[in-house]
Amino acid sequence: MQATMELEANSEATFDGDRLRAARQAVLGDVSCVLAKACGAEDISPRAAQQAARNLCDILFSHPQSRGTEIPKLFWETPLGHAVERCFQSSAD
């Protein structure tokens, strides 16, 4: 019984580790996409860049209890904020 419980705990830890690793890779992919598009990469579509920018804003600034995302004004003065803004502007063009 003890061995079964330990096996289940290890399986859950591995599953959580895999999920965390996948989430980390997704965030890094979004950051890479946003920065590349802001630097002028033409192989990234405006729609993909905007979605990556939206994902980052949601991850960074959304709250579980609120429906919207409130982005602090200071964010737009950071390098990542400028890159996100360029992605949103490129999709409007």
Tag the structure with descriptive keywords.
single chain; 93 residues; mainly alpha; 72% helix; globular; disordered N terminus
Molecular structure report:
The termini are far apart. The chain has helices at residues 2-38, 46-61, 79-92. The protein is built from 3 helices and no strands. The chain is globular, with a radius of gyration of 18 Å. The chain has 93 residues and is mainly alpha-helical. 72% of the residues lie in helices and 0% in strands. The longest helix has 37 residues, at 2-38.
Write the layout of secondary structure elements.
Elements (H helix, E strand, L loop, with lengths): L1 H37 L7 H16 L17 H14 L1
N-C termini distance: 62 Å
Radius of gyration: 18 Å
The secondary structure category is mainly alpha
SSE pattern, N- to C-terminal: HHH
Q: Rough shape?
A: globular
Taking pLDDT < 50 over at least 5 consecutive residues as the criterion, the unreliable ranges are 1-5
Number of strands: 0
Largest sheet: none
Mean pLDDT: 84
Indicate the multimeric state.
single chain
- In DSSP terms (H or I, runs of 4 or more residues), the helix count works out at 3
Share in helix: over 70%
In percent, how much strand structure appears in the residues? under 5%
Brief summary:
With 93 residues, the chain is mostly helical.
